[in-house]
Each structure stands twice: as structure tokens, then as C-alpha cells.
Amino acid sequence: MNKRVLVGLFLLSAMPVVSFAAPAWRAKKCGTRDVALVKNFVASYLGSVMVGGGIGMVTGGIMKYLENGTKQYLAAKWEINSAPVSLLLTLLSWAFESEVRNDLVVGLQGDLDQYEIEYKRIPMLRSAQIAAWLTYLGM
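The structure assignment produced for this chain is given below.
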């Protein structure tokens, strides 16, 4: 179920573009020009979503690991096990995680621009955000 939710969200992120492009694809017969158009569309959107999702999964997993380790350390070492401290740790970790995730995505986009590789900015950022939350929540 976890993978189904992630794949469903990735497909939903590209849905508005597909709905605008679909009538043009149905109006013509599938020729070599249309195959190139579909390949270009899939390469730019699917690649962007997969790369962004990978970055989000890594950063979300690292934040979950660090947050759980910090909570266990505080509970064992200083016997701090209160809800306000846990809430503060959660808020701090997500503030830090979003900055790191966005910096990684923007840095990768700069590299892609430098090598003139086509990608889509917004789907890459959104898929990284969604994947980070899903990984953190354990879905």
C-alpha cells in the first residue's frame, strides 16, 4: 500500500499537464512526431518526479532517524520525556529538513541547467516534499 500511495501522488502531480495535452494526442494518428513528443513529455516529467521523490525519501528518512535517536537519548540520559520537548524537536527537525531538501533540489536543478538536461522545476520540488512526508510518516 505504501508504494501505491506514493505512485498515485506522483501521477496526480502530472495530471493537469496530461489533461491539457490529451485532446491534441487523440486528434491525430500516432506518428513519429507524436512518439517523440510523448518521449519528451515522459522524460521531462517522470525523471523530475523520480529524482525529486528520491531526494525527499532520503531527507525524510534521515530526519526520522535523527529525531527518534534524539528523543531516545534525551529520555535515557536526562530523563526528559515530555510532550513539549517532543513537539519542539519535531518542529525543529522539519524546519531544518525543508531547508536541506530544498537546497539539495535547487543545487541539482543548477547542475541539470549547467548540462542542459531538460526537467520540470515544480514537479521536482513537490514530489520531494510529498516523498519526505510519506517517508517520515512511515507510509
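Interim note for the steering committee: The radius of gyration is 20 Å. The chain has one domain: 2-137.
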